[in-house]
């Protein structure tokens, strides 16, 4: 392994290294060792250090450079100019969305101390004005001017600012902007043609302003209040809750006051969070997790973006000053949730580590400091006056229940990240001032490596995947244009207070997001002394008891004994949604060994006949798509759906999909009443499966209902992965097993 030959795929490179080294090291079971003892071995192992450092250097040499004529890891005005010219072409052809995308790339790649950056910002502001994104347009204009936009062109930009302010009905500010534009133009030696063009534009805006009334359009979102106020003894939780501890349940959350559906019982900012590789080009702010942002890029790399200069400066101070080199050589998308473990360490260092509790002896080693932070009452640390680091540090890791190979891979990942900080950043130069005790260099590195390992274990058990709703437009030559909503993953985060909820496959809460803030509401009424349960991924509405228990054992290392898993009468509930319909009584037909039997009348289904009917129905639907007339299309699509109704149980997920497809055909042809009936039918089926207060039940409603439900507090809610359709994949696959 002294000379590495790595495949092109970044993830595969890392997987191969982990497998090769862990196969050599797994002969000794270290799962019983402390984090300090484990990292004392791995971080000081020269052979392992050499291999991991060689890989880091190869990653840097491969990725931290100009990758093509249109992409670079840092800044390049040539590439910025290329994208700006592409944006100009699209703008001239009136493809404003595309021009905005290209101008954003130009902003990202432009050297922020040179002339290309303000020009790119100004071009993007023109696209934003056309897209009616006026606030973003104003931000870009402000940035362009503050970054040295040429004085001889600034009069145009000032008129654009006035136009934005008029669109926003800010009449006083608009008048001031017009005066400033006029005064600035007077200082320039404009040609007759340019002066005439300016005067005409100014006159048009003055006329536009005359008919506009000043309107306060402040749309600042409000965070909903806690039910019964915030709990001083349980930070980020409602006064209706209590954190308790028992031998059987460990730390857990119960109600000390009765709650009703919709009550807010947690509202928590993350201790740390990281954005995920974006799906469908949706950009997310690295600092606050706001989605669909008008990007403000890092001033050094082209891989990190923010929603504002404020978030950029906060991110730089908190984590990015140490992450920027790794972002340039694509380290973080390669290592998955280990990026969040690194972020936990960086956030802790940025805030400064707290003093040990009163009475603790002064630590002189990494081990002393580790033990001091652990030697606390793990319930009392949730009071408001306790430093947040204690709550993060004392989350469970499950290392004692983990298999040796996984544990070694986590230790190797922690070693690699410590080497990264040591060799590519100033982290260890900055660290001594952030720890209130004197440790030598070796102990500081050991403490950091051990904290990384501990965080990896904690995140596997306690991490949250954050999802948000995305509006998807689909164009089909036959079906026309349709708009739908789906959940997309955007971040992974850690919430120490919400992490105190135990799991149930039938939870009594629903998780939502506002940017990075987690807001937890009751999904049903809860009397006093009711335990509050989250769902860690496996849900009774999606998987059988055996499947759920297997997944929970694999990642969370416990055998689930929740009410849903113990309910023998409903153990096959999820099978209803893949069941056939009995031809005698229409009851659900499930597989019993090699036979398909009705669960009500026990009649056997002729499966060949059922499959043949489905095949005919699909053929009819294909004919409907190719139909020459609207009438023929309706007739064949309706016949196909009726045939499927005869074969599939009424709650079959494929029957819902078929109903949705038919509803789209009706809607696109103006048959809205027939479309609505099918949609209502689907909503009832979804509510039967997931419940009316679940994300699925709420998202399935009409846009009007959706807005009413989710903006009742003036808040645009974001959905958390622990309840959405992709929850199990998010929590299990991106958890960490089998690779960091």
UniProtKB/TrEMBL annotation:
SUPFAM superfamilies for this protein: HIT/MYND zinc finger-like, SET domain, TPR-like
This entry's Gene Ontology molecular function terms read: histone deacetylase binding; N-methyltransferase activity; protein methyltransferase activity; S-adenosylmethionine-dependent methyltransferase activity; zinc ion binding
Which Pfam family is one of those matched by this entry?
Answer: SET
Reactions that this protein is recorded to catalyse: L-lysyl-[protein] + S-adenosyl-L-methionine = N(6)-methyl-L-lysyl-[protein] + S-adenosyl-L-homocysteine + H(+)
Query: What keywords would UniProt list here?
Result: Cytoplasm, Metal-binding, Methyltransferase, Nucleus, S-adenosyl-L-methionine, Transferase, Zinc, Zinc-finger
Biological-process GO terms, alphabetical: methylation
Q: InterPro entries, alphabetically?
A: SET-MYND_domain_protein (IPR052097), SET_dom (IPR001214), SET_dom_sf (IPR046341), SMYD4_SET (IPR044421), TPR-like_helical_dom_sf (IPR011990), Znf_MYND (IPR002893)
Q: Where in the cell is it found?
A: Cytoplasm; Nucleus
Q: Which residues form the MYND-type domain?
A: 285-324
Say which domain of life the source belongs to.
Answer: Eukaryota
One cellular component GO annotation, for this chain's record?
nucleus
> What CDD domains does its record include?
SET_SMYD4
Cited function: Protein-lysine N-methyltransferase. Monomethylates PRMT5, modulating its transcriptional activity. May also act as a histone methyltransferase. Plays a critical role in cardiac development. Acts as a key epigenetic regulator of gene expression during cardiac development via its dual activities as a methyltransferase and negative regulator of HDAC1.
Alphabetized PANTHER family for the sequence? SET AND MYND DOMAIN-CONTAINING PROTEIN 4
- The protein's name is Protein-lysine N-methyltransferase SMYD4
């Amino acid at each position: 392994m002294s000379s590495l030959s790595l495949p092109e795929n970044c993830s595969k490179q890392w997987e191969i290294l982990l497998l090769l080294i862990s196969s050599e090291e797994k002969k000794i079971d270290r799962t019983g060792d402390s984090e300090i003892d484990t990292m004392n071995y791995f971080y000081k192992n020269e052979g392992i250090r050499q291999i991991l450092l060689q890989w880091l250097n190869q990653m840097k040499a491969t990725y931290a450079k100009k990758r093509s004529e249109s992409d670079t890891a840092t800044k390049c005005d040539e590439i910025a100019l290329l994208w700006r010219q592409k944006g100009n072409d699209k703008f001239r052809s009136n493809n404003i969305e595309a021009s905005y995308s290209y101008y954003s790339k130009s902003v990202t790649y432009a050297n922020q101390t040179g002339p290309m950056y303000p020009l790119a910002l100004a071009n993007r502001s023109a696209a934003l004005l056309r897209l009616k994104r006026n606030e973003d347009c104003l931000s870009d204009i402000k940035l362009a001017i503050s970054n040295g936009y040429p004085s001889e062109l600034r009069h145009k930009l000032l008129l654009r600012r006035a136009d934005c302010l008029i669109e926003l009905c800010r009449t006083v500010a608009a008048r001031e902007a017009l005066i400033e534009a006029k005064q600035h133009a007077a200082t320039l030696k404009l040609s007759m043609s340019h002066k005439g063009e300016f005067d005409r534009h100014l006159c048009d805006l003055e006329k536009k302003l005359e008919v506009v009334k000043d309107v306060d359009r402040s749309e600042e979102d409000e965070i909903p209040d806690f039910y019964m106020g915030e709990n001083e003894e349980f930070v980020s939780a409602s006064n209706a809750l209590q954190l308790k501890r028992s031998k059987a349940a460990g730390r857990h959350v119960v109600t000390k006051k009765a709650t009703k559906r919709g009550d807010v019982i947690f509202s928590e900012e993350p201790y740390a969070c990281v954005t995920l590789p974006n799906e469908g080009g949706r950009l997310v702010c690295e600092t606050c997790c706001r989605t669909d942002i008008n990007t403000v890029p890092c001033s050094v790399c082209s891989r990190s973006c923010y929603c504002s200069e404020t978030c950029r400066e906060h991110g730089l101070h908190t984590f990015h000053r140490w992450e920027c080199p790794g972002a340039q050589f694509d380290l973080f998308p390669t290592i998955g949730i280990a990026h969040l473990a690194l972020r936990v360490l960086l956030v802790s260092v940025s805030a400064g580590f707290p003093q040990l509790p009163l009475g603790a002896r002064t630590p002189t080693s990494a081990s002393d400091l580790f033990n001091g932070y652990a030697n606390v009452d793990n319930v009392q640390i949730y009071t408001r006056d306790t430093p947040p680091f204690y709550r993060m540090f004392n989350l469970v890791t499950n290392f004692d229940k983990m298999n040796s190979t996984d544990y070694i891979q986590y230790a190797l990942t922690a070693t690699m990240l410590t080497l990264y900080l040591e060799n590519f950043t100033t982290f260890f130069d900055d660290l001594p001032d952030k720890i209130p005790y004197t440790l030598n260099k070796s102990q500081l590195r050991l403490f950091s490596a051990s904290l990384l390992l501990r965080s990896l274990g904690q995140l596997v058990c306690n991490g949250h995947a954050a999802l948000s709703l995305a509006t998807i437009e689909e164009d089909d030559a036959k079906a026309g244009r349709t708009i739908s909503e789906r959940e997309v993953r955007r971040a992974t985060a850690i919430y120490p207070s919400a992490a105190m909820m135990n799991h149930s496959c039938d939870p009594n809460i629903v998780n939502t997001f506002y940017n990075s803030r987690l807001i937890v509401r009751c999904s049903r009424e809860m009397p006093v002394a009711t335990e509050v349960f989250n769902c860690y991924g496996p849900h009774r509405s999606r998987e059988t008891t055996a499947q759920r228990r297997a997944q929970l054992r694999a990642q969370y290392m416990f055998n689930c004994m929740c009410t849903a898993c113990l309910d023998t009468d409903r153990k096959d509930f999820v099978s209803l949604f893949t069941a056939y319909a009995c031809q005698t009584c229409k009851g659900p037909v499930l597989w019993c060994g090699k036979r398909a039997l009705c669960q009500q009348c026990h009649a056997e289904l002729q499966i060949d006949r059922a499959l043949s009917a489905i095949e005919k129905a699909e053929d009819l639907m294909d004919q409907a798509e190719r139909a020459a007339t609207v009438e023929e299309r309706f007739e064949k699509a309706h016949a196909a759906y009726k045939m499927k109704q005869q074969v599939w149980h009424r709650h079959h997920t494929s029957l819902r999909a078929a109903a949705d497809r038919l509803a789209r055909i009706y809607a696109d042809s103006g048959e809205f009443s027939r479309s609505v009936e099918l949609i209502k039918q689907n909503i009832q089926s979804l509510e039967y499966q997931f419940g009316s207060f679940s994300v699925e039940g709420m998202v399935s409603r009409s846009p009007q209902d959706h807005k009413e439900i989710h903006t009742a507090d003036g808040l645009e809610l974001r959905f958390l992965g622990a309840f959405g359709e992709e929850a199990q994949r998010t929590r299990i696959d991106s958890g960490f097993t089998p690779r960091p």
